[in-house]
Amino acid sequence: MSDMRHDDWVARYLPAAWGPYARLCRLDRPVGTWLTLLPCLAALVQAAEGWPTLFRLFIFSLGALLMRGVGCTINDIFDRDIDSKVERTRFRPLTSGQLSLKNALWFLFGQFVVCGLLLFAVNEYSRWLAVLLVPIVIVYPLCKRFTYWPQIVLGIGFNWGMLMAWSDTQNIVPLAAIAMWVGAVLWQVGYDSIYAYVDVRDDLKLGVKSTAMRFGEHGKLWISGFYVATVLLWLYTGIALHLSWAYFLVLAVITAHLAWQMWVFSLSRPDRNFMLFRSNMTVGVLLIVASLGGTLIN
């Protein structure tokens, strides 16, 4: 039931002393990084009205990797006592004693320093947006203590790069870009709620909150509603940005994929729900394809 493998590339190729740090920032599990990066790349394409520059692709890809790592490190620092009581997370570096709290805090400081260096590669508008992201990343792990909606805060932070993609490319964030971002936030609330059902029994015992606990037996209805809102917002974005027919064709495929998720989703199948959560990487890839098609194909 552990959410990390002890025979993966981290164990095989990294020095033993580096392993706990790699696992703390989730380098061994890149799904979250991809789910952060893919919508951001789609926004870069839309903002550039085609292919973004290689430099901007590199900076935003590195930023997604680093900031996801920062978020995971902060999450494990705050949740170290909770994680020790959950079967899936009890082998994480801080809870298992592989890493001390002091070293984790120094590592977090180092991550922030490297992220700060990236600010010199973006414009002033984007720097201010990046600064605004920091409190969102810090507060997210605490949200599950007092609200059933931590996934909203997670979605805001995870997809923040979409706004920065526009601010850095065009020095503006138009309404259509905000609609695309809100759609991505709601999409994340949906798919992360699917993931939350994997831990709902442990969360009930520990007294922490999630959308899965709020939705209860009505999870399929709630998540379907978030997915419908996502598609409508992304549809509006395509119209407002005057994207070509190719965007709407791929958006139809995305809609079918999300409908398939709801068809397969089951409250009583945690293994299936984890598979559905991972399948959202496909949605992210399709979003990039839709954006490329919508901007490059007449």
From TrEMBL:
PANTHER family: 4-HYDROXYBENZOATE POLYPRENYLTRANSFERASE, MITOCHONDRIAL, PRENYLTRANSFERASES. Its EC number is 2.5.1.39. PROSITE patterns: UBIA (PS00943). Pathway: Cofactor biosynthesis; ubiquinone biosynthesis. Keywords: Cell inner membrane, Cell membrane, Magnesium, Membrane, Transferase, Transmembrane, Transmembrane helix, Ubiquinone biosynthesis. Belongs to the UbiA prenyltransferase family. The keyword Ion transport does not apply. It holds the Pfam family UbiA. This is 4-hydroxybenzoate octaprenyltransferase. Signal peptide: none annotated.
